[in-house]
Amino acid sequence: MSADWPVDLRGVTESVVTTRGPEGAYNVAALGLHAGDPVTARTWGRTRTRMNFEREGEGYVQFTRDPVDFVEAALTVRAVDDPVLDTADAWARVLVERREKGIQGGTEWIEWTLTPAETAVERRTVPTINRGHAAVIEATVAASRLDVEAYDDERLRGRLSYFADVIERCGGEREQTALERLRAAVESPEADSRFESF
To answer: What pTM was computed for the model?
Structure first.
């Protein structure tokens, strides 16, 4: 049985996905959804999301506007007990099927087909545009590519500095907190020593 996506997808839509790990907790990660028929997504490397997709065959795709949840999903290891985050405006429990795989920049990727099996809209909102929020998303993408062979670290750090400036000038309280979390993730002892401050 399949359901309709709870939101309209176009281009690449950034989402947060939770997948059940072997101990029962749900891993939280960022996942870009490629619109089309079917909707697809890629995992890069041997991530928790990939391993959980392979073992469980499903996950919970969530649409959240919260910049802190997005930064934590993309740049930290986070586990939760409930598969649906409190900040999710809408979600879909998706069945996943491996579509194809390849290698790019020395990293193995797997493309998955995502089929919604159950969906819900938790809240409807009037959209607003905040440059600080958009900069958080772009900064998170840049930070996630640091120390990846296919990307230029110096150029990425320049982008991070630019986006940090936009967040500081235009972002609200949650965007400022997201910037603090992003900096902490990039500068953490677990991060590669080449991750410089921005």
So the answer is: 0.87
